[in-house]
Amino acid sequence: MKRKMIRIRLIGFKPVLGRTVRLLHRLGCVQIEDLATSGAAAVRPLQMTPDTVQRQEEISHLLTRLDSLLSTLQGAPRLPAPPEAEVEKRMREEIPLEQMREALADVGERVRRLVEEREALLEEEASLPRYEQTLRRLMPIVPPSAHAEGAISTVALVNRSHQWALDAVAARVEEVAGARAEMVEENVGNEMRAMLIVMPRDLAPELEKALGRESISRLRLPDSFAGQPPDVAVTSLRQRLAAIPEQLAAVDRRLHEIGTSWGARLRLWRARLREEVQELEILERFGETEYTFVLEGWLPADDETALRDALQREVGDLVAVERLPLTPEMEAQAPVELVNPTPVRPFESLIRIFSLPHYNDVDPSPLIALFLPLFFGMILGDVVYGLLLLLITLLARRRFREPGVARDLIHVLLLGSLWSIVFGFLYGEALGTVGEEVFGLHALWLERASPEAVRALLLFTIGVGAAHIVLGLLLGVWDALRQRSRSHLMERAGMLLGLVALFVVVAVLAERLPAGVMTPAVAVLVVGVVLLSASHGWLGLLLGPIEFLGLLGNVLSYLRIAAVGLASVYVAVVANQLAGSLGNLIIGVIVAVLIHALNLALGAFSPSIHSLRLHYVEFFRKFYEGGGRPFEPFRIEPRTGRSPR
Question: Is this prediction's pTM over 0.85?
Answer without folding.
Answer: no
